[in-house]
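Posted in: Structural Biology > Protein-Ligand Complexes

Title: Requesting predicted complex, zinc ion in pocket

I'd be grateful if someone could produce the 3D structure tokens for the following input. Sequence and ligand are given below.
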Amino acid sequence: MSEKPAGRLVYECVKCGAKVTVDELELRGGGVKCTFCGYRVLKKIRPPVVKRVAAK
Ligand SMILES: [Zn+2]
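-- Reply #1 --
Done. Output follows.
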């Protein structure tokens, strides 16, 4: 197994709002490009982390 821990980054297209994972981008040649609309301006977002918040 050669799973990269850093490969969990997710981009969000600023145009259509689609979430694109780094894995998908690498499969398409490594360029940053929306897989839905083709827009090239994506912003990095953190993937949703399941975190338990203690409610008071
Ligand atoms: Zn898009």
